[in-house]
């Protein structure tokens, strides 16, 4: 069990002809696109910190709202079970705004996606540069970087677009400036 919830085995990969390499081959995005741990308030009103950075895992950070039509497909997909892209399981985390007033609806949605952590955090929205919802950010926890992001227009469409973005990132070779050797 991690701060992001228990390991969820059995994730089904999304098929994509553009997928050319495993997620582990993704180089760091340009400087300044660093991931940060998520801090906020849990559904019980207590302070929460979800460790993402320096974790040997991939995270699917979902910025959602309880009353957004586009968000419903994400809430439903998270309730259905594990999520994977290219065979790599992603640990989901849901982040909602602090001022969301529909407490009963949020509690219902959070209960449906258990064990996925659901936190309230305006700070996370700001730190990740999220302007609207639903938005999904894929984070490579071991490198503490944002690897891909997309706005959701449909669940399968979002996963395919994330896979394409991750695939494009694999085509870039990252070289260590000091040694001149390729970095994976």
User: How much is the average pLDDT?
Assistant: 74
> End-to-end span in angstroms?
27 Å
List how many beta strands DSSP finds: 10
Main pleated sheet: 6 strands, mixed
How many whole angstroms does the radius of gyration measure? 16 Å
Tell me the layout of helices and strands.
Blueprint: E1 38-41, E2 47-50, E3 58-63, H1 69-80, E4 83-85, E5 88-96, H2 103-112, E6 118-120, H3 122-127, E7 135-140, E8 145-151, H4 155-170, E9 174-175, E10 182-183
Parallel strand pairs: 3-5, 5-6
Antiparallel strand pairs: 1-2, 3-7, 4-5, 7-8, 9-10
Describe this structure in words.
This protein has 184 residues and is an alpha+beta fold. It has a single domain, classed as Glutaredoxin, CATH 3.40.30.10. The protein is built from four helices and ten strands; from the N terminus they run βββαββαβαββαββ. It has helices at 69-80, 103-112, 122-127, 155-170; strands spanning 38-41, 47-50, 58-63, 83-85, 88-96, 118-120, 135-140, 145-151, 174-175, 182-183. Strands 3, 4, 5, 6, 7 and 8 form a six-stranded mixed beta sheet that branches. Strands 1-2 form a two-stranded antiparallel sheet. A two-stranded antiparallel ribbon has the order 9-10. A hairpin with a 2-residue loop joins strand 4 and strand 5. The chain is globular and about 40 Å long. It starts with 37 loop residues before the first strand and ends with a strand. The model is unreliable at 1-32 and 170-184 (pLDDT under 50).
